[in-house]
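[Automated response] Your request has been received and processed.

Submitted sequence:
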Amino acid sequence: MDRLEDQLTADFYDYEALLSDDERKILLGAREFMTTEIKPLVNEYWAKGEFPHELIGKFRGAGLTALSYEGYGEHPAAVSNLLTGMLAMEMTRTDASVATFFGVHNGLAMYSIYAGGSQEQRDRWLPAMAAMDKIGAFAMTEPLGGSDVAGGMRTTAQRDGDTWVLNGAKKWIGNATFADYVVVWARDLGDNQVKGFVVEKGTPGFVAEKIEGKIAFRIVENAEITLTDVRVPEANRLQDINSFRDVAEILRATRGGVAWQALGVMVAAYELALAYAKEREQFGRPIARFQMVQDKLVQSLGNITASWGMLVQLARLQDAGIFRDEHSSLAKAFVTSRMREVVAWAREIFGGNGIVLGYDVARFFADAEAIYSFEGTREMNTLIVGKAITGESAFV
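Generated structure:
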């Protein structure tokens, strides 16, 4: 493929050139897969508020799973965080819901096992998950706890011989209605520390009910989970997770991934608005010739370019093993805020057509609100960065 012909119009500073030739082939393969196999499905299922289960089979042959987990995916070695981030951007550029389904499975669930499980546990669960023969979910957020879940987790785990008994509730858990493995986080009543448990599909006492009526991420099957005396063997407790500090290591990486998703939404909205402005005529000429339309497009491109640069450096810090909570928090807070601006400008350029699903931009406009909120609100991430730069905690 010719590089210039495949370059995104939103990649104004040519950030894709930072990838190696092999990495770029993977990215372009993902771009083709998402465009040809996934994009035709999304508006129909977004409108219905249903998950298209056939796309699991499509992903199964795409070779995109477990690229970051050496020894478990099809790739011979773990790829860079830069490629991982750009893949998240690329998937979201097609659809944020589908990207989230994949991110929950391939990121949150698999990474929890990869980073927090023993070698035996990794070998037991990850091969089937890498092949997408088994689907994962990640259950952290609770009905009465979001940003404060670290210190106020209400779901409990009590040891009983060689088993653990889980009780409590979780909310907004993506994939949970059909997942084979759900990583459930609970507070150990013995030492008051957070621990992780892999609850397998069909375990008695585990109930996942789909949340209806969402205006964003309508394809994602978010669930409210209740756990009533759910018995899990000690062999299913993630052996290297002993406190919330260990969990925070997982969340640090995934928070950066959400920022890449926000970039994908911006890229999609900008590309749609740019193409529309070139073809939509008013007063006898394309609206792309109007100064105020060009202003919105240029501001959007500026937001994209600045965000992309921040995320490139974040990926470099990750690859070097020196990135910290405040690095991913700043990226999440900044990029999602810029995303909100871009989707609003894009919808304005579409005028009334901007609220019609068939023009696509409405879907990105709505889905942006979910990305803005999860993995830590802007305010919470701001306080993390604020503490880092001032040395003073403003948390109440």
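Summary generated for your ticket: The chain has three domains: 3-130, 136-236, 244-390. The chain has twelve helices and nine strands.
If you did not submit this request, please reply to this message.
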